Amino acid sequence: MLSNKDALLVLNGLPHVGPVLLRRLLDSFGGDPVAVLSGSMESLTRVRGIGPHAAQALMDWEAYFDLEREKEKIGQYGAVFLERGHVDYPMLLKEMYDPPIGLYWLGGYKVDRPCVAIVGTRQASMYGLKVARKFGAELAGLGFCVVSGMARGIDTAAHEGALEGGGPTLAVLGCGLVFVKIFFHGRFHSGPVFRGYKYHLACFLNCYRWAVPLLPYSKVQNGVG
């Protein structure tokens, strides 16, 4: 028997079912994710926008999503999946019209203060990098959590400035958290962001399944980068 949390993890990772359809499905099934995955073809296709392909993916979800492997990978890297009702799910995110049904969260920091986002170009000038780092440090010193997308350039400078200023920072990613370890290893593993992560001052989050690569549309959906 699936728990609500496991069912949300499955729904978050299925193909053919995006955030808009997820909201409609949960609304139609009384907010019960287990009921969504137990629905019949008839009941699922009654939901606006759910066609045969999406309904089949929901009914045969085990063929599309390896739940146990996903949970194993999350635990192996020390991450967690925060469903929308979890006590550590960011409060301001809950106030959105359509917040993500869950977040993959890597790092010990939990949002406990106002946040400010700093984002910018990947091909920043030396002056731009200096200013972003200075803003990050000063905002952290004033008690803000600095949020960015961990891309090269301005994002990285803002994260590092926040940590140098003694404050926390959040990196909102447009890809699966596994790529924190793979793609960003050389840039960050010995740098301030990863040192901050070790001391629970930095964390990485997204709403994508563990191994989703960075795609063009995901830069928009991550809400920061």
Any overview of this molecule?
The chain has 2 domains: 1-65, 5' to 3' exonuclease, C-terminal subdomain (DNA polymerase, domain 1, Orthogonal Bundle); 91-98 and 103-221, Rossmann fold, CATH 3.40.50. Strand 4 (145-148), helix 10 (154-164) and strand 5 (169-172) form a beta-alpha-beta unit. By secondary structure, it is of the alpha/beta class. Helices cover 46% and strands 12% of the residues.
SSE layout and pairing:
Elements: H1 4-13, H2 19-28, H3 33-37, H4 41-45, H5 52-59, H6 61-64, H7 67-76, E1 79-83, H8 91-94, E2 102-106, E3 115-117, H9 126-141, E4 145-148, H10 154-164, E5 169-172, H11 178-182, H12 185-188, H13 192-198, E6 202-206, H14 218-221
Parallel strand pairs: 3-4, 4-5, 5-6
Antiparallel strand pairs: 1-2, 2-6
Helix pairs in contact: 9-10
What's the structural domain tally? Answer: 2
Secondary-structure element sequence? HHHHHHHEHEEHEHEHHHEH
Radius of gyration, taken over Cα atoms and rounded to an integer in Å: 19 Å
Quote the CATH topology of the largest domain. Answer: Rossmann fold
CATH class bucket of the largest domain: Alpha Beta
Q: Please give the largest β-sheet.
A: 6 strands, mixed
Average pLDDT for all residues: 84
The portion of residues assigned to helices is 40-55%
Order of strands, widest sheet: 1-2-6-5-4-3
Percent of residues in β-strands = 5-15%
What overall form do the CA principal axes indicate? elongated
Please give the CATH architecture of the largest domain: 3-Layer(aba) Sandwich
Class per helix and strand makeup: alpha/beta
Ends distance = 38 Å
Low-confidence stretches: 217-225
* Distinct helical segment count: 14
The number of strands is 6
